[in-house]
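Run log // design_07
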């Protein structure tokens, strides 16, 4: 048996943000300053809402608890996570704790987090990746309106992440016909959009990618990427090389076209300061990504991948 999970309602496409009806007395949770959130909220056309805009980037369980203690007694009708991953992660955790439904509205694209049961929060200073059914959105609203004003580099990193997730997800041993259709469709849409500079198609591609990989997993590319993240390289940028080399290792059907989108987006070669053998040891502990990889991986394979990334032998 296979199970797939996705939000009960997904509103997407042109004017999804302003055409969606939001309940009164909702609590909007965001990370951005009022100059920006005022504009977004006006566009939503939402009335009689409460606003919490003190979520910190890379939020912790303390951010969740701050929302709960400030608003529990004010009894919001629903929680709305408006922003990047940080706002959505806080709402994913806080809403079920408060016994409320949630709407997720991504303003940066790529992670597909609005579609998934994943939630990333810090506990005692350490980032943890949680996955529970209760983190799923009741409604997601996906609108390319937010692309305007997002820095170009953020968009490039996000869209590279979406392509990596779709193609690694397609190859995941945890996948099934449904996830493979979604992942393949996501990459086709994103590939065409990137090669033709149709940025307005990015949010839809990312959304489909989220439904696909969110119901299976990512694989070797993501496992390799975290040693670069540890040295401060943005997630999407590290995947430009890590997923390429992973696709080469796995003989992925997406290898050539993934390389094409990386070249088109203009990513530069990655560097790694850590000792390769020590870095490979760290990667080897990431069973969550390595076990579903389509072919088995040894420590020597990992070292070879890391060497190829450093020398640009992709
Ligand atoms: Zn990712």
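design_07 sequence
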């Amino acid at each position: 048996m296979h199970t797939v999970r996705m939000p009960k309602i997904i509103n997407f496409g042109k004017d999804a943000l302003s055409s969606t009806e939001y309940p009164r007395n909702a609590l909007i949770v965001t990370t951005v300053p009022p100059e920006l959130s005022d504009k977004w909220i006006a566009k939503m056309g939402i009335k009689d809402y409460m606003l919490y805009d003190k979520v910190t980037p890379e939020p912790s369980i303390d951010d969740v608890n701050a929302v709960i203690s400030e608003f529990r007694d004010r009894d919001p009708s629903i929680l709305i996570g408006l922003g990047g991953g940080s706002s959505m992660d806080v709402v994913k955790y806080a809403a079920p704790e408060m016994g409320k439904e949630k709407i997720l509205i991504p303003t940066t694209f790529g992670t597909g987090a609005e579609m998934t049961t994943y939630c990333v929060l810090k506990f005692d200073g350490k980032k943890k990746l949680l996955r529970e059914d209760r983190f799923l959105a009741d409604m997601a609203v996906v609108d390319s309106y937010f692309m305007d004003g997002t820095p170009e580099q953020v968009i490039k990193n996000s869209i590279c992440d979406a392509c990596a997730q779709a193609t690694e997800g397609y190859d995941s041993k945890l996948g099934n016909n449904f996830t493979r259709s979604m992942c393949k469709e996501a990459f086709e849409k994103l590939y065409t959009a990137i090669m033709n500079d149709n940025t307005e198609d990015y949010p839809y591609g990312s959304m489909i990618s989220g439904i696909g990989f969110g119901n299976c997993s990512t694989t070797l590319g993501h496992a390799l990427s975290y040693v670069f993240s540890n040295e401060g390289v943005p997630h999407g940028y590290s995947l430009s090389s890590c997923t390429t080399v992973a696709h080469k290792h796995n003989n992925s059907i997406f290898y050539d076209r993934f390389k094409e989108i990386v070249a088109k987006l203009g990513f530069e070669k990655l560097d790694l300061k850590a000792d390769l053998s020590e870095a490979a040891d760290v990667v080897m502990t990431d069973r969550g990504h390595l076990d579903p990889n389509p072919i088995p991986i040894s420590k020597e394979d990992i070292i070879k991948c890391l060497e190829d990334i450093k020398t640009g032998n992709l």
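The domain at 152-311 is CATH 1.20.1090.10 (Dehydroquinate synthase-like, alpha domain).
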